Amino acid sequence: MPVYIHHIETLLPPTSYAQEDIAAALKRSVTQGDRRTEKIIHHLYAHSAIERRASVVTDFLPGAAPGIFYDPAADAFLCPSTGARNALYTEAARTMFPSIAARALEAAPGFAPEQLTHLITVSCTGFFQPGPDFAILKALGLHASVERYHLGFMGCYAAFPALRMARAFCEANPDAVVLVVCLELCSLHVQWTAGMDDLLAGSVFADGASAAVISAREPIGVALRLDAFASAIAPAGDSDMAWTIGDIGFQMQLSSYVPEIIQTNVVAAIQPILSKTHLTREQVSHWAVHPGGRAILDRVEKGLSLPETALAASREVLRNCGNMSSATILFVLKELLTRGVTPDDTLLAMAFGPGLTIETALLTAV
């Protein structure tokens, strides 16, 4: 039974910062006159291929009141506790989760909130209970019988298991209507340190939300058929991308070797999805690669011998939004739809996360 993504919706917080302004703030906060660290920050941000990133943190807006990260009167950078960061996550997420969910269901052709049967929420940047699924249920007036699931703390690839779950629900029940909602507020875990892991993470991660309406109904308009999924693990990559919960936010471990590891393993990683769908690399019409950073996109392009234009949609999302963890891949798929697809075009989507895990999906435009 074919199952389709009928509509994708995206949402950014209203506050955003230019990449050069973030770099300037970071230099003031961590370098303490160390020219070497200053040069590292300049290089990371100047070569990030990111122009702006959105954030729920408003501390750095002109005229903003003192916040949990910055006191403008004293020009002091603060290190709030994990509890304080999570409180801000909870406040913002309780608004953004219902907002993106409502927008997705309202914009999906032929669907209405009361038709929803399953709700899958995804986030790795905060926790609260009753959770985001409950917040959506209450705000949209959904029936209590809607089945609710939450995927937490998985990282950048988490949209893939969520989409896989949604397809399974629809295959089991032809009348199922599933909403997948991903929201990440990565900026809440900024670390004002000169550690390379913190500098790398601080140069790419951002805030954003995305949602997809999925069912086995015959599509009205353009849709993406979910054809196949596959998972792979890059050998020797388990210590190069990881994080844990610390006393002052989530502590990220992000090795500069991650792009190289991905390049080394990307051909083998996509082979299972190509074998499942009986396609060759040359038969893939569009590539939807998670823009974890410019170097990752460069290495994927090189590893797969793709033309320079192949990852244009991923680079556009990186330029305007940065890396929004699990929410990002749906931004890329929406960008590809906006640019235009034709019936029977194949889309190979890919994302990376702790492990080092590489998730892939093959979709067909209808």
Please characterize this protein's 3D structure.
It is a single chain. The protein has 366 residues and is α+β, with helices and mostly antiparallel strands. The chain has a domain at 224-365: Thiolase/Chalcone synthase (Peroxisomal Thiolase, Chain A, domain 1, 3-Layer(aba) Sandwich), CATH 3.40.47.10. Helices cover 36% and strands 25% of the residues. Strands 7-6-8-9-1-10-15-14-13 form a nine-stranded mixed β-sheet, with helices on both faces. Strands 2-3 form a two-stranded antiparallel ribbon. A two-stranded antiparallel sheet has the order 4-5. The two termini are 14 Å apart. 48% of the residues are buried. The mean pLDDT is 96.
Please outline what is shown here.
This protein is an alpha+beta fold and 366 residues long. 36% of the residues lie in helices and 25% in strands.
Features:
366 residues, alpha+beta, Peroxisomal Thiolase, Chain A, domain 1, 9-stranded mixed sheet, two-stranded antiparallel sheet, 15 strands
Query: Could you please say which CATH topology of one domain applies here?
Result: Peroxisomal Thiolase, Chain A, domain 1
Number of helices: 10
Percentage of β-strand residues: 15-25%
Ranges where pLDDT stays below 50 over 5 or more residues in a row are none
Which structural class do the helices and strands define? Answer: alpha+beta
- Major sheet attributes: 9 strands, mixed
**Principal-axes shape call:** globular
Distance between the termini: 14 Å
Strand order in space, largest sheet = 7-6-8-9-1-10-15-14-13
Mean pLDDT: 96
